[in-house]
Amino acid sequence: MLLRKENILIVDDDVDILELLQRHLQSWNYHTYKAVSVKEAVTILRDTKIDLLITDLKMPEIDGAELIKFVSEHYPKLPKLVVTGYPSVQDSLKFIKSRVVDYLTKPFTRAELKAAINKSMAISNEKDFKAIKPSEEKNKAYGDIIGHSEKIQDVIQIIERIKNNKATVFINGESGTGKELVARAIHYQGKFARAPFIVVNCGAIPENLLEAELFGYVKGAFTGADTNRDGFFQAAHGGTIFLDEIGNASVAVQLRLLRVLQEKEVIKVGAQKAEKIDIRIIAATNSDLRDMIKKQNFREDLFYRLTVVEIHVAPLRERKDDIPVLVDKFLFKYGVEYKDRYVTITPEALAILNRYNWPGNIRELENVIQRAVIMCDKIIDVVHLPEHLKYTLEFSDNEFEPLKVIEKKYIEKVLRSTGNNKTKAAKILQIDRKTIRQKLTE
Question: Is there a contact between 134 and 148 (Cβ–Cβ < 8 Å)?
Fold first, then answer.
């Protein structure tokens, strides 16, 4: 199988420099992506696996030094090369020196550019080139996994052990906890990173089509099958297939999956001959498969084949230490996307986010920050947060109290937050003024 060319992202607000760099890179057989702003660069980084970042320092709105900082925190294994036309900006160069492989001062020769790229790519390909461990720098990312809580560190340690083999992995956790991010980290942090990574949401594909989509089909296998077609498994050959919401797979699909795991081969729908495949399977669900086995909705033999390695992704309420770094990530992401500037958050607003239990997990937190960035100017304050977050009570496990006491505390809290405005408090509590007067009398 042919390996893909290295992807290099060039960031510069000077279109002529972009074109010049692109011509040089393409002549050396690199695949290039271009961005004229940090905003465009972040979008490309989010959607594409980049092998080297080349960036200018001086750019309008958000400069290259801040992009270097962002990449260092969120893509620590990505090598970075700075090209600057301002050799006098020593403060910036000192700031980024520990975060980049090399830098060039404009104008530079073709040979100097080639040498700097070779140096950068060589360091990124060294066998002893280590990802930054979260234990060493707590706020660093592992792939797209953000956090330094003990529970997320446990997940990262498992990924470190399994990333370079093709053992079958099962990921469980509530919706919105980041199961796909864990699957991507297993694939992209290991030695198979250049091979295909195919995502299949088993819950999004109609049951009558899932079998054909997964395994492919031959001409005439069913109405509408007018040609031979490979499935997701064939597309993932040599790499990883991620089967999300595996609990939604029908019994027929489960039986076929069992054969794939046992025999390392697939049979297209309507075909007689099996095809050998070299593949790693990662499955995930927010369902309780053990309970489904008891109800005979999921095959027990398939379950044990899938759970060679099992990873549990804890809900956000059990790893609240990760909330500040996740908030920081989303502030940068949506600040760049919507404001072309950095957005910050007040301690009071952050305290509310830390107190809330996040039933929708990271997905809900990201949604809240996205909305708040849109609603604010430069700083997110309490007023920019959804109402239901502002009036959340926090209890520890040993604080269980009678319902009337909890109700009293909550009503008092809402009244304090509204400046004792009973009309506004009644609206928040979704009761009428008469009822709130009765409660206050009691």
Answer: yes
- Which residue do the tokens 């009678």 mark? 402
The CA distance from 58 to 12, in Å, is 8
CB contact at 8 A, 203 and 250: no
Q: Which of 201-222 are b and which e, b meaning 16 or more Cβ less than 10 Å from the residue's Cβ?
A: ebbebeeeebbbbbbbbbeebe
Q: Rounded distance, CA 39 to CA 80, Å?
A: 17
CA distance 212 to 268: 7
- Kindly compute the dihedral angle of the four CA atoms of residues 254, 256, 259, 264, in this order, to the nearest 10 degrees: -110
Q: What share of the chain is helix, strand, coil (3-state, %, to 5)?
A: 50, 15, 40
Residue 52 DSSP SS3: strand
pTM: 0.66
Q: Which two tokens stand for residue 163?
A: 């990333």
Cβ atoms of 278 and 238 closer than 8 Å: yes
Query: From the centroid of its chain, how far is CA 69?
Result: 18
pLDDT tens track for 83-112: 877 655 454 455 455 556 677 777 788 888
Distance CA 421, CA 427 (A): 10
CA angle in degrees (0–180, nearest 5) for 395-401-404: 115
pLDDT tens for residues 397-422?
555 667 777 778 778 877 776 778 88
Q: DSSP string spanning 30-92?
A: -EEEEESSHHHHHHHHHHS--SEEEEES--SSS-HHHHHHHHHHH-TTS-EEEEES-TT-HHH
- 339-361 burial, b at 16+ Cβ within 10 Å, e below that, comes to beeebebeeebbebbeebebebb
Q: For residue 397, with 0-12 CB atoms within 10 Å meaning exposed, 13-18 middle and 19 or more buried, which class applies?
A: exposed
**Token match 């009570």: residue?**
393
- In angstroms, rounded to a whole number, what is the distance separating the alpha carbons of residues 211 and 228? 15
pLDDT at 194: 84
Rounded Cα distance between 128 and 29, Å, is: 26
Residue 374 backbone phi and psi in degrees, to 5: -65, -40
Query: What is the DSSP secondary-structure string of 252-308?
Result: HHHHHHHHHHHHSEE--BT--S-EE---EEEEEESS-HHHHHHTTSS-HHHHHHHTS
Task: Specify which residues 33 forms β-bridges with.
Answer: 9
| H helices present in 131-217, as ranges | 150-162, 179-188, 207-215
* Structure tokens that stand for 435 in this block: 């009822």
**Is residue 105 within 8 Å of 84, Cβ to Cβ?**
yes
